[in-house]
Amino acid sequence: MASKNKEVLFGLYNDEEILLTAVQRAMDDHLDIMDVYSPFPVHGLDPIMGLEESRLHQAGFVYGSIGTLTAFLFMTWVFTRDWPVIFGGKPYWSVPAFIPITFELTVLFAAIGMVVTFYTVCGLGPGVEAKTLDDRITDDKFCIAFDTAGQSSSEIEKLKSFFSSTGASEVNTKVL
Amino acid sequence: MSHAVVSPIREPLVTGNKTYHQITEDLCRPTETAPGLAWVGAFVTALIFMTGGVFCILWTIWFGIGSWNLNRTIGWGWDITNFVWWIGIGHAGTLISAILLLFRQKWRTGVNRAAEAMTIFAVMCAALFPGIHVGRMWVVFFFFPYPNTRGPLWVNFNSPLLWDLFAISTYFTVSLLFWYTGLVPDFATVRDRAKGIRRKIYGFLSFGWTGSAKHWQRWESLSLVLAGLATPLVLSVHTIVSFDFATSVIPGWHTTIFPPYFVAGAVFSGFAMVLTLMLITRKVLHLEDYITIEHIESMNKVILCTGSIVGVAYLTELFVAWYSQYPYEQFAFFNRAVGPYYWSYWGMMACNVITPQLFWSRKMRRSIFWTFLLSIIINIGMWFERFVIIGTTLARDYLPSSWSYYVPTWVEIGIFLGTIGIFFVLYLLFTRVAPVVAIAEIKSILKTGGNQYVGPNATHSHSHSGHDEVHSGDHHEGH
């Protein structure tokens, strides 16, 4: 991903509606937003930022299918190849009786797979140090951040004037 | 803005004119302050019950199942009754968090966190019983299909008891993942307010969460799909629990109505337990602004609905037993009503069929006292239901010479009380460690559910200038 040291210039907003207008402005002005942070999911933000829809659910479908196949093929193998046993005069390959476990493993694989994928692609997990810009972002502040590493002072001035004209309540810098 | 479309007839779900910061303050406070005397008292009591339960479990393992009063006729007693009861209670959490998420019911945000926690703890209590009741707890791993030196000889995949094992372990795992993923952003909120060692602990628990837009997007996507998966899962779990009975050939168990009847009963008892807990929690932790009368009424409506389904199922069972003209089936139900365990049958009928009908009255649905009382009655009634199905049915089998009666020993009672202790120890710890109400989710519904934006206050209280659209939108609709 990006280099280790980011010099971040960020503005804090008091409300998600002000944030949405500001992000729209930044996109219109072709400012390169590093990230937007909020205490809760702000609806309508993704299309403005141009974020593509998450493909997590497609991954979930794949994991689920793996679960379906694992359960069904394993039970089939056990009861027709490895150790066929007659239970109550039923056929060895008693498909209806396999359905509950097949269903459960489908759900189990999909859920575990998706959760693991979610934390992996987000770079989150136990022991990961949070790179927080401001402690109030998880409380009541909404934040737009720019990476200003290697930028000229005039470019930084431009970003600062962007913040002041879009109603940011505070503008700060931090090295991540 | 697009989300300013709110129904003017909705009652507010967050009262007290909260700001985002106030929500953080209110919901983080229990994790940041020392517990009060009520909490300590409850915790110590629960701990005593838990210790007693652990003692009785060890007693059972040491002396064997002979320390219970089960006999050749009655092979399942309090153990499986308690198992089904706890599993049923564990159904409300996923119903609230998953099904209500799919139905876009915003009131779920006030209670989903605690209900999911309750689900997890209830499933833990439930899972104890199959483990204990096999007698030799140290070989419980035989349940699992693992490559072994006995052939390998595999487990019977055609058995509903094995389906149950898969259903419950899947349910526990998925509920836990769902719950924890919802907790991560809230742990980050607690982390960013904390100092020193607490900051380190919550930093670890929050997995490095920052609130980045892309993370939120994926988080919402994950929540939605997990909800979509958990919905059929929760229905499958109690369906499969009912298969434990329905696929047998015992009169009174061998009925096709069991799966829907068990699922409705599970939701019924689960909501009763959620109400029991939430009514105490909201009072002790001062969460009246987040768990409002509106929330309680909504849950009471679910209780009324599922309680009525359960009532219809009881009557359908009786009708089908008569209509089948099958004497053994008829006897099983006759025996339930007037046999040696008649008191448990009528206890069940009174608690589960008659009392929830009181909730047709709006006054009752909105009364804290009646809600609390009825939630306890329903918890008792649903325990009776499982005992009726298991105990009464087994006590009178095909051979009158082997008919029997069963009362539990102190060991069995001790284990049951012990699981209640375990449940409350875990729940009480949870209320002190994690935000009991989902902070981020409450914030995200504030503008469509806060009382300064909807309901009677919306027209005359303006705290921010940014939300004028909300009110002007309402006015337009009014004209």
The total count of strands of chain B amounts to: 0
Number of domains of chain B: 1
Task: Report the principal-axis shape of chain A.
Answer: elongated
Total count of helical runs of at least 4 residues of chain A: 5
The profile of the biggest β sheet of chain A is: 4 strands, antiparallel
Task: Give the termini separation of chain A.
Answer: 14 Å
Structure report:
The complex is a heterodimer of chains A (176) and B (479). With 176 residues, chain A is α+β, with helices and mostly antiparallel strands. Chain A folds into two domains: 7-53 and 134-170, no CATH class; 56-122, no CATH class. Chain A has five helices and four strands, in the order E-H-E-H-H-H-E-H-E. The longest helix of chain A is centred in the middle third of the chain and has 28 residues, at 95-122. The radius of gyration of chain A is 25 Å and the shape is elongated. Chain A starts with 6 loop residues before the first strand and ends with a strand. The mean pLDDT of chain A is 88. With 479 residues, chain B is mainly α. Chain B has one domain (19-137, 155-449). Chain B has 17 helices and no strands. Chain B has helices spanning 20-32, 37-63, 78-89, 91-102, 108-133, 160-193, 196-205, 213-246, 258-284, 293-324, 327-338, 342-354, 362-365, 368-395, 410-433, 439-449, 468-478. In chain B, helix 1 runs antiparallel to helix 16, helix 3 (78-89) crosses helix 9 (258-284) and helix 10 crosses helix 12. The interface between A and B is large, with 70 and 71 residues.
